[in-house]
Design a protein that fits this description.
Number of strands: 2
Largest sheet: 2 strands, antiparallel
Order of helices and strands: HEE
Strand order of the largest sheet: 1-2
Number of helices: 1
């Protein structure tokens, strides 16, 4: 899911071409590339990193103990 960059800090080597990079960095890179290509637009991005374990949900980026539910 996460992976890692084979070549660190090399902008000439796109993240999409790196075989070690997982789906999460690829999706985020694609999202921001698409947003940056839009002219005269403001945007806001909110991210949650959800874990489902023993039928309980946890947001791995949020340190508060909020109860999460799936509808």
């Amino acid at each position: 899911m996460e992976g890692f960059r084979s070549i660190e800090n090399d902008d000439s080597f796109p993240i999409e071409d790196d075989p070690q990079v997982g789906i999460i960095p690829r999706a985020v890179s694609h999202l921001f590339s698409a947003l940056n290509s839009i002219q005269n637009c403001e945007y806001s991005v909110k991210v949650s990193y959800i874990e489902l374990y023993n039928e309980e949900l946890s947001d791995l980026l949020d340190t508060t103990d909020k109860e999460l539910r799936i509808f």
